[in-house]
From TrEMBL:
It comes from the Bacteria. Its EC number is 2.1.1.10. Binds 1 zinc ion per subunit. One of its GO terms (biological process) is methylation. The keyword Acyltransferase does not apply. This is Homocysteine S-methyltransferase. PANTHER family: HOMOCYSTEINE S-METHYLTRANSFERASE-LIKE ISOFORM 1 (PTHR46015:SF1), ZGC:172121 (PTHR46015). GO terms for molecular function: S-adenosylmethionine-homocysteine S-methyltransferase activity; zinc ion binding. Keywords: Metal-binding, Methyltransferase, Transferase, Zinc. Residues 3-295 form the Hcy-binding domain. Zn(2+) binds at C221, C280, C281. The keyword Cytoplasm does not apply.
């Protein structure tokens, strides 16, 4: 459908984002214990990705995030995939989500957000939650720009610059999206009232305040209790719509390689004032349906 996402983010009720793509793929029996994570399935099981997107659209999501979070030219090269094929796989992530939207046969508009994760996601060593990779902003911009160009050419409704751990990478991404002709949102991974690298959120969001390409700002892959302060700070600092999609509230135990604690995410967090609300790690279709109902979307 042709309704403009930028308009929908400012008018009418809040929109619903999907949940964790990897969560849904793992539930379907796919092993994602791999440096490419869900991006591996772009080559090996693309239909599984379409089905995962479809599950979220059917659950009530208005926006689906593509399987390109950990998809990079460098990561694919490590698997012997040449640049042309890597570009095809990146672009296919958008088309797979589009196909899911077509299959959903929804009576409401459905949109596709092309994911671009942080540099640390490609390293697959946990540094995406720390930032400060030892690279200059120019080096980070050179890393991000080529895949953003490919994703933009595939014509998503928006680029999701997500799980960004620090302001250096945010500044690099703000430069990298210039002139692509596709709007973007900038979403930080946070710890309390700071980015994962320790910068105050007010400082971090202020970087995007005057960036024309950025039509929304927010947080993701964080604890549910971090959302209210972040949403208030993002809205006050930028005046832009806010996106919020926290984790379930469970904690990953690297020693036991298992999730500890119980989920703390409830649909109540959707009342914080964010205009695009969903979930990240360990958040599945059932929770997205509950959020959609809480927002009056179902």
């Amino acid at each position: 459908m042709s309704t403009d996402l930028a308009t929908a983010l400012t008018e009418g009720p809040p929109l619903v984002l999907d949940g964790g793509l990897s969560n849904q793929l793992a539930s379907a029996g796919y092993d994602l214990g791999d440096e490419l994570w869900s991006a591996r399935l772009l080559a090996e099981a693309p239909e599984a990705i379409t089905e995962a997107h479809l599950a979220y659209y059917t659950a009530g999501a208005d926006v689906a995030i593509t399987a390109s979070y950990q998809a990079t030219f460098e990561g694919f090269a490590g698997r012997g995939i040449d640049r042309a094929e890597a570009a095809r796989l990146l672009a296919s992530s958008v088309e797979l989500a589009r196909e899911a939207a077509r299959r959903a046969e929804a009576t409401r508009p459905l949109w596709v957000a092309a994911s671009a994760g942080p540099y640390g996601a490609m390293l697959a060593d946990g540094s995406e939650y720390r930032g400060r990779y030892g690279l200059t902003r120019a080096e980070l911009e050179r890393f991000h720009r080529p895949r953003l160009e490919v994703l933009a050419e595939a014509a998503p409704d928006i680029l999701a610059l997500e799980t960004i751990p620090d302001t250096d990478e945010a500044e690099a991404l703000l430069r990298a999206v210039r002139g692509l002709g596709v709007p973007a949102w900038l979403s930080y991974s946070v710890d309390g009232d700071r980015t994962r690298a320790g910068q105050p959120l007010e400082e971090a969001f202020a970087l995007a305040a005057d960036a024309e390409e950025i039509i929304a700002v927010g947080v993701n892959c964080c604890a549910p209790e971090d959302v209210p302060h972040a949403v208030e700070t993002a809205a006050r600092t930028t005046g832009k719509p806010v996106v919020a999609y926290p984790n379930s509230g469970e904690t990953w135990n690297a020693r036991t390689r298992a999730w500890d604690d119980s989920p703390t995410l409830t649909p109540a967090f959707s009342a914080t004032g964010a205009r695009l609300v969903g979930g990240c790690c360990r958040v599945g279709p059932e929770t997205i349906t509950a959020i959609a109902r809480a927002l009056g979307r179902l």
